[in-house]
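Working notes for the structural subgroup meeting. M.R. asked for a predicted model of this chain before we commit to crystallization trials. I am recording the input and output together here so anyone reviewing the notebook later can reproduce the run.

Input as submitted:
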Amino acid sequence: MAFDPIHALVGQAAEKYPEHVAVQTPLGELTYRDLAARSDGLANDLRAAGVSAGALVPVITTDRREFAVAVLGILKTGAVFVPFDPDGPDLRLRDTLSGTAAEFAVTGADETERVSELLASALPQARRLAVDLAAPAAGEPLTVLHVPAPDDPAYLFFTSGSTGTPKAIVGRMRGIDHYIRWETDLLGVEPGWRVSQFASVAFDAVLRDLFVPLTTGGTVVVPPPGLLLDGAGLGRWIDGQRLDLVHCVPSVFRGLAAAAESADSPGFASLRAVLTAGEPLAPADAGRWFARHGERISLINLYGPSETTMTKTFHRVTPADAERELIPVGKAMPGARIAVLDSRGKPSPQGTAGEIFIRTPFMSLGYYLRPDATMEAFVPNPLGDDPDDIVYRTGDFGRILADGLLEFIGRKDHQIKIGGVRVELGEVEHLIRAHPAVREAAVVPVKDGNGDIAHLCAFVELAQAVEPEEVGAHLGGRLPAVAVPRVFVPLERMPRTISGKVDRRALPAPILPQQASATEYVAPRTPTEITLARIWADLLPVEKVGVRHDFFTSGGHSLLVMRLLSRVGSEFGVEIPLQDFLAAPTVEALAERIETAILTGGDSLDDLLDSLDGLDEEEAERLLQGGSA
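Returned structure, recorded in token form:
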């Protein structure tokens, strides 16, 4: 494939369509003629100030017109643009800005006091250049034309920092060119298309928001502030603005899909395609969308880490996908290959989970000034013997389905064990979102006093009122008992990162099951119940044991079940079958079973333990998960 610098493609569009609106925002519009002239003027100013090819130049502005000018102007000098969201957390902004050690920065004309203070503290020596759209556009064309090579650096985007200090991903020129050409060809984007701009400027999705329209003579259309949180209002805005293409995260699409169920939902007469990426796309949301709009509007699910340049797989979603438990992320786009490998670096069998590896010449250049992290993530291809054949190790789990499609399961670091049972938090979240009353979910583990994971807590953003027991029952037939959250905490709004994903670090502290239990407290009444309550209090993180409180809802897990039954055998001299306890895990029910066993004469506890010893590990784990082998 031939390579063209992305700013050169924008320049070609500006020559063909000088009077077309390039960027439309609530603050005003910018034509292609103005965009070209003002970015040329900024490039000249940057050069005159001493900016050279490869230099890092931070960009801080809220006005997307100014942002587009800044990005193009910086690229025209051969420098590297580093976008920052002015609405981001102060400490993060200060740390990441400081990490660039930049000598220059580009701001908007109306630089706020907060931005000025951030730059003064993080980059005190940096010279600031402002994009002033109120001033006359410079009349001089670009005086120095830098011709970049395909593998020259183009940008830095910082990771979300969910695993620690944010790392800066260095993108290469041909990675942008490859993706934008692919999407415009796939969708048949034409001059005049109106394309949404929802992504934060600090997230690499902003690249497709900008360059898909700007390389084809289309218009970048920016919504009013705060509208993304209002699904119905956003739908009306999309319809009224006659958008052809929407890029969004699935949580934003969820609001549009929910609004589609209302009688007065917009028809989206102009909309041709919705592309989602960044989070799992819920089958229930796709089902709501297709029920209202059919397949007239293409719905495409994308997957790919920023390290491989935006996304690298795609799947055209169909109504049949709405019946799946998970919507696939599809197959690799041209110029990329996907492998799902097991812990030994061998291909995982079809339908079996493994880690996703991506091979493409269009991936990023690694992490800025982090050779250790780069070598850990960008590794020699395990399926070959060429040390120069580098692939990206995503840290994501997935599996290849029978139809050849890739299914994303979740993050490798989101797999945990509860009482020896493996639980994938992403799978639990998927299934919670499938409940019609749930708009969004985030599941976190809760540890007991010994530091062991005792149970799961689910934070949920609801579309309608629902009892936690109903959501738990929805999961009961789909997950092992230990994987069903014992606590459901409703939130009015789920906290979000700058990329639109759920911000797990901003979630409230998980609460103990007894704090959320709706079960009425009934004190122990018989000697058997009193003894059992004492045993439960020793094993579980509860202060007050009620005879009708569920063992698992109170913080129990599979390993504690065996300790409980062992204590029961020691105290009462009877054996209670595991399945019997799992069928009714309360003090009241267990007391009845103990008293019945004493009256009828039961088998010894040793027989029970011997029977479990006879099972292999997988059978025993399955028994503890679901109550039957």
